[in-house]
Every structure is written in structure tokens, then in C-alpha cells.
Design a protein that fits this description.
The protein is an alpha+beta fold. The chain has a single domain (8-304), classed as 2,3-Dihydroxybiphenyl 1,2-Dioxygenase, domain 1 (Roll), CATH 3.10.180.10. It has five helices and 16 strands. The protein has helices at residues 18-28, 91-100, 165-173, 227-239, 298-304; strands at 8-15, 32-39, 42-51, 60-65, 78-87, 107-111, 114-120, 126-132, 153-161, 177-182, 185-189, 198-203, 217-224, 248-249, 253-259, 265-273. The strands form two sheets. Strands 2-3-4-1-13-16-15-14 form an eight-stranded mixed beta sheet. The mean pLDDT is 97.
Length: 310
Amino acid sequence: MITDIKGLHHVTSMAADANENNAFFTKTLGLRRVKKTVNFDAPEVYHLYYGDEIGTPGSVMTYFPFGRMPRGTRGVGEVGVTEFAVPKGSLGFWKDHLSGKGVTGLAEETAFGENRLSFDGPDGDGFALVESDPQGRTPWTGNGVSEEAGVFGFRGARFRLQDAAATGELLTYMGYQKAETEGDVTRYIVEGGNAADTIDLEQAPTAGAANQGAGSVHHIAFAVEDRAAQLRVREALMQTGYQVTPVIDRDYFWAIYFRTPGGVLFEIATNEPGFDRDEDTAHLGEALKLPTRYEPHRAKIEANLPEIAA
């Protein structure tokens, strides 16, 4: 069994419009934009990162805004809901705040003993705010949401799968423990890591397959401390038969990827070196940062990218 997984690192999704995406996460959810860079494989597309003050692993939501991209179709084989942790007693504020911002899909419920508020992102993304203990985390308050209500980071994520058994076995191998089941949803928890420590598997055997587009999660990343731990995880996964990519330098972390039995793309990302490797903490996310190989083309890249409001 793998013992190096520390919970979630980040979740990466796709969007139709960079400015709408930026405004939603900074102005509506109150997160900090901690990095403005480009897609490593498509430098004409931004890669935007949102999180707490420093982009702590387990707090970072990232987006590829592809521009006029059609919406994805919800279904099985995807991360259906990305869950953010908020202070206990804050859902009343969030319901009023999100409603006032025109956010759709608001629905209050309780799952696994936790109060939660589901809502839609600007591209139909599936989100939920879950009342949770801070577990040492401090929300970013620089965008107008108070500390009494601010987002700590992730609580976890809910996958929607046709058959959850094989993914459950994989999570168990990755160090997660099966906790409890409510209806068609089974919770898995990893202990001893960061606070973004839950994965819920929803089994929907008669649902149609998801089709990716704007509002879809592209991949979900799990955290390991360093490159040595990442190599141990890679070797263990390959010994079990998974086809895992070589290690890829993503500037702010190193990454490996593999496809899961349920169809969800997993990444294992290092906690090092972090988002302050090329920007002072006070100015994270302000300047356009480019991978080294794209620096000679900066003028052309900047000319083709849309301006993003602060």
C-alpha cells in the first residue's frame, strides 16, 4: 500500500472565458489568484491558479480557459463535484452572498454529518461548500470575504462513476480508508496528510458517460511531499499495472499522470517548490509567468492572450 499520499494537491478544470472565470473565483468565492501562466501544451491558453495566500497544496483550483469552449456534459467517469471547506456556521452567509451574485443551483443538504451548500460555477461546474474545522488553515481575506466565512481550501471531491468498486480499490491502495456509505455514495479518507482528505465515490450505473468541455474537471491531483516520494508512488503504481507518465516539470511542482479504472485522470504532484519560486508572496498571480521555453515568444503570446482584470 502507498503511504506517501497527503490528500489533494489541486483540481484542474476547463472554462470558456478567462475573465468570467477569474471574476468568479476572486470576486465571488474570494480566493486569491496565485499564478497567471499558460498551458504548457497550448501557450495561447492561460493556466490560472486560485487558492489561499500562498497556494498551499490542498487549496488550489486551477483552470484552462479555452475561449468559447462548449460546455461539457455531466455524467459518469468524471469528478462531479469539487468541495471547498468553509467555517462552521457560515453557510447562511454563503447562500445570501452567492444568490446576490446570481449564482445558480443553490441547494442545502447534509452528507456524512456535514452541512453543505451545492452550487454551479459559471460553466455549469459542480461545486459545494462544506462546513468544516479549519485544521490549521487560514482563509484568504484579500478579496472581501471575511475570515469568519472564507474558504480554507478543499474539503475533497466527489466522483461520479458507473462502477465505483475498482476506483475504491485504487484509493485504498493509495492509502485511503473506506469510511462509510450513504445511499449510492461511499466516502474514503486519507489520514495523516493535509485537510483536503476526503474522496466520495457516487455510483450511478444507469447514467450516461460524461463528455468533457467547459465546466468539466480535466484532472485531479494528489499531493506528495517531494520528488523522492513521487518516485516511490510512481514505482508502486507501475508495479500494479498502471501506465504512468514520466515525471514532468510544471515549474511550481513536479507531476505524473495516469488514467483510473473509472475514467478519471489522476495526477500525483509534489508540494515543492511552490508558487513563490518566481514571485514574491505579496505579488503572487499578478505578472504573466511563462515556462522557460516560451520566454523567447513572450511578445507574441501576450498579444494573443485576452487581458484579465486584476
